[in-house]
Amino acid sequence: MKTLQEQNEQLITVNLDELAPPAWILRPIKNELVVELERSIQNTGLLQPIVVRKKHTGYEVVFGNHRLQACRRLGIKRIKTLVKSFDDDESFLARISENLIRNTYVDPMEEARGYKMLVGKGWTINAIGRKVGKCDSYISERLGLLKNLSERVRSEMTNGSLTPSHAELIARIKDRDIQNEVAELVKKRRLSVRSLESLLKNAPHPTKIRSESNGDDDEYTIKIPRQFAQAMGLKASNELFAYMQGKKLVLENISHSRVCTANGNHSL
Q1: Distance between CA 22 and CA 257 in Å, rounded?
Q2: How many domains in the chain?
Q3: Regions in the chain scoring below 70 on pLDDT
Q4: d(CA 169, CA 137)
Q5: Are 116 and 168 in the same domain?
Q6: Closest of 173, 7, 77 to residue 182, by C-alpha
Q7: What element of type H or E holds 226?
Q8: Which one, out of 47, 61, 111, 120, has a CA that is 20 to 30 A from the CA of 34?
């Protein structure tokens, strides 16, 4: 006797021109992976059917977009597919879950946009988390990338300069200009996620200090002794970041990756 899941599945052979790529692209097509799959399929055939769902015209790929591209390049006309009864929400969640289980890269911004779409439809964070096998805080942190993160830091994350975990921590900083500077600090100092977390724990809002007075009432603007400025390689209008590491005050000249530390009871 077939299970309910098996009753909602059907293995059929379809023409490739009936197959459309996923409506929600969670990661870009990697050419190197497609080339590897071409070799494998050419030698042993398509061992694992592509999972699809029925649409008004033809079928939409749920799992196996790279395999589909490899088959197209090889000139294959017909392949076996496993048809599953997924609606839009189930298709998105199934793909996220599958990729997370396999530890496969998923574009964090697309993942976040998908969660936002589901929340807009009435899904709770808890329900989404249970579907993809993640805790509530994971879903909330992903949503925070959309709501709180500066465009520059989003771009740095998308191009791989920052990890999603770094970006989630940076998103906790309210000032987006400070976010950009902290992102630059992470890259130049190659801070680990743990180091960044420690930095923000000791200084939730890193303070920006200008190297000379600009004549206004900005409480963060101070005059810096000439010897100190020379030691730090500071020029007029350069800026420092000040934050605590334990009992030490750390001043960082981002433009030159210079660091100065002093005991907490010392002053400039």
Answers
A1: 44
A2: 3
A3: 1-8, 202-249, 251-268
A4: 12
A5: yes
A6: 173
A7: helix 226-232
A8: 111
